[in-house]
Write a structure and sequence with these properties.
Blueprint lengths: L16 H18 L1 H13 L6 E5 L7 H11 L6 E4 L6 H9 L5 E3 L16 E5 L7 H14 L3 E5 L7 H22 L8 H9 L2 H16 L3 H8 L7 E9 L5 E10 L2
Parallel strand pairs: 1-2, 1-4, 2-3, 4-5
Antiparallel strand pairs: 5-7, 6-7
Length: 268
């Protein structure tokens, strides 16, 4: 596999919630800036044409990512058949949950208990989504997730915002410059975080731990992302005619590529 098994700070359970949420808040801003919700809403609407579901169970939601805006766009387009969104995370943050639930969005809720993507077969029914989180999984676990989706017969949509197409040597050479750029970007992006709390400001501008975490995790995630060939290796030879898999570039409405997706769903 081309994918490298690097570490990300967000993977460690010892990472304080304030720092974890601070980093995921920046990821949420990034999704908003690049228009991820547009890509996802188009993808999910196309999935609904292939398989019926009225709930999306998002795995590894963090601070909500792009999924809240995505579900709003989906339900605006299909007002006659609304879809509910259940956000979940391995390390749910009570403040984040309170903020999202306080919005009183009729179709959105955040599951208060920890939910491991590895145990997705125990999650509530519906389309399972993994948005920019599949790369966190080691190959053995990633394969297990794909297997469980197929065996359960429930649809699974995996989306990665980046593609691992940079030669490894070039990545290492450019890493110092890339980290500096991402740190500077995070200082600007913080101003767009909502709600913007005192601890986000403290650990960004006075004690810049969040920018360091965001910069390293962002660069590491690029090399941890599975390539198309890597995914094909994970899937191997599948002989289940009642469940199909798609791997393809994701696109915006203007036709521009925007990451890629893996889709598994039962055949009607």
């Amino acid at each position: 596999m081309k994918r490298l098994q690097l570490f990300e700070f967000e993977d460690f359970d010892w990472l304080p919630l304030d720092l974890r949420s601070g980093a995921t808040n920046l990821i949420k801003v990034l999704h908003r800036l690049v228009g991820t919700s547009e890509v996802l809403s188009n993808l999910i609407l196309s999935v609904r044409e292939k398989v019926d579901f009225n709930q999306i169970v998002d795995l590894g939601s963090g601070s909500g990512g792009p999924m809240i805006e995505t579900i709003w766009k989906i339900n605006e387009e299909r007002q006659d058949s609304q879809v509910n969104l259940l956000l979940t995370d391995l390390y749910p943050n009570t403040k984040t949950i309170a903020d999202i639930n306080a919005l009183n969005l009729s179709n959105v809720s955040y599951h208060p208990e920890s939910l491991d993507a590895q145990k997705m077969d125990t999650a509530p029914e519906g389309l399972k989504t993994m948005i920019a989180s599949f790369h966190h999984m080691r190959p053995s676990i990633a394969k297990q997730i794909l297997d469980k989706a197929e065996h359960s017969g429930e649809p699974l949509l995996i989306y990665e915002i980046a593609k691992n197409n940079v030669p490894i040597l070039i990545w290492w050479i450019l890493l110092p410059i890339s980290l500096i750029i991402l740190v500077i970007m995070s200082l600007c992006m913080t101003l767009f975080v909502r709600p913007l709390r005192a601890k986000q400001l403290l650990f960004t501008y006075l004690i810049p731990l969040i920018p360091i975490i965001y910069a390293w995790d962002g660069q590491a995630s690029l090399m941890r992302t599975y390539t198309f060939k890597d995914v094909e290796e994970l899937l191997g030879e599948r002989k289940n005619e009642k469940y199909v898999w798609e791997i393809s570039d994701a696109k915006k409405r203007n036709g521009k590529n925007a990451g890629y997706y893996i889709l598994g769903y039962p055949v009607k």
